[in-house]
Design brief:
CATH architecture of the largest domain: 3-Layer(aba) Sandwich
Structural class: alpha/beta
Largest sheet: 5 strands, mixed
Number of helices: 10
CATH superfamily of the largest domain: Thiolase/Chalcone synthase
Number of strands: 13
Shape: globular
Bound molecules: oxa(dethia)-CoA
CATH topology of the largest domain: Peroxisomal Thiolase, Chain A, domain 1
Number of domains: 2
Strand content: 15-25%
Order of helices and strands: EEHHEHEHEHEEEEHEHEHHHEE
Length: 329
């Protein structure tokens, strides 16, 4: 028997219907389409409207569609990991709620929080369960309802984020395909630059925290941008070097969609042409844990068995990382 690797064998995405355009945002805050497009590459983002809906609804839709595509029953799933920065509640986990909504009775479930790098961290974690031989069908779902923590009076953050979810199925592979390598990093001293100040154990929710708008995303954009450009490019170059990959060997760069300028810098550093970069920030903005699986979902038809993909992300924490995988179908 060959060495077991963990391979993505299916992918699906789900975004809500409502499109919040740059034009609509310009009626809400002092901004304009030209500024947003030139500084970020974003033209519109999706927003989940409706009472009582949360990240689990985005995630459950993505996973349900994945099961349908793969002709799988929910009770065949062994494990569900949900990467989210906007859980339905602090506890129980959103993964548990997704499992209940889709009736995945045999899966054990947990959330993984690594802000915008959560999907990569979860994919790497999930791959260990597969490689151990203990689990055969693992779902990783990245789901975020960013609109629930965005201040639509703050023009520096409300233009960036959107809602969405994507899910992949991981299964064992004996042909050497799937996840080949991962480099994942964290630096908690970055917490001052990108955070949500209240609602946790240090600063529990009170009338005061609500009045002070401390339940919204705070971002020092310039500082985060500086770290994101350097670290996402560095870690992507590092994983290529460690695996003897040149720009030509990479079929696709699958970057976290935070800012087109960060993505361009990463591709340049890797020597990967823009025609090989998955980019859908224009339509969805930054969906945090949704960005990478949403790209895989939209590009699925263009992928071929054996393609070398480099996934890369940077986010709050700070957290960042890169995964090198060979597409398995
Ligand atoms: O996914 C998690 C990780 N997050 C990221 O990777 C995001 C990283 N940061 C960014 O993407 C960028 O920093 C932003 C898109 C948030 C901001 O772009 P920037 O080019 O860094 O703009 P800036 O903050 O340096 O602001 C430049 C100017 C300022 O005006 P002055 O001081 O030069 O007069 C801002 O007040 O642009 C102004 N500005 C805006 N103008 C129109 C800031 N936001 C807006 C806006 N519309 N929405």
């Amino acid at each position: 028997m060959g060495k077991l690797t963990a391979a993505i064998t299916g992918v699906n995405g789900w975004v809500p219907e409502y499109k919040l355009t740059n034009h609509e945002l310009s009626t809400m805050v002092d901004t304009n389409d030209e500024w947003i497009v030139s500084r970020t590459g974003i033209r519109e983002r999706r927003i989940l409207k409706g009472k009582g809906l949360g990240a689990s609804d985005l995630g459950a839709n993505a996973v349900e569609g994945l099961l349908k595509k793969k002709n799988l029953k929910a009770d065949e799933i062994d494990l569900i990991i949900c990467a989210t920065a906007t859980p339905d509640m602090l506890f129980p986990s959103t993964a548990c709620i997704i499992a209940d909504k889709i009736k995945a009775k045999n899966a054990f479930c947990f959330d993984l929080m690594a802000a915008c790098s959560g999907f990569l961290f979860s994919l790497s974690t999930a791959s260990m369960y597969i490689q151990s031989g203990a689990y055969k069908k693992v779902v990783v779902v990245g789901a975020d309802k960013m609109s629930s923590i965005v201040d639509y009076e703050d023009r520096t953050t409300c233009i960036i984020f959107g809602d969405g979810a994507g899910a992949v199925l991981l299964e064992p592979n004996e042909e050497g395909l799937g996840i080949q390598d991962a480099i994942l990093k964290s630096d908690g001293s970055g917490r001052d630059y990108l955070n949500m100040k209240a609602g946790g154990s240090v600063n529990p929710s009170t009338y005061k925290t609500v009045d002070a708008k401390e339940h919204y995303i705070y971002q020092d954009g310039k500082t985060v941008f500086k770290f994101a450009v350097t670290n996402m490019a560095d870690v992507s170059a590092e994983i290529m070097e460690r695996n003897n990959l040149k720009g030509d060997d990479v079929a696709w760069l699958v970057p976290h969609q935070a800012n087109k300028r960060i993505i361009d810098a990463t591709a340049r550093r890797m020597g990967v042409g823009s025609e090989k970069v998955m980019l859908n920030i224009e339509k969805y903005g930054n969906t945090t844990n949704g960005t990478i699986p949403l790209c895989l979902w939209e590009w699925e038809d263009k992928l071929s068995k054996g393609d070398n993909l480099v996934l890369a992300a940077f986010g709050g924490g700070f957290t960042w990382g890169s995964i090198y995988l060979k597409w398995a179908y």
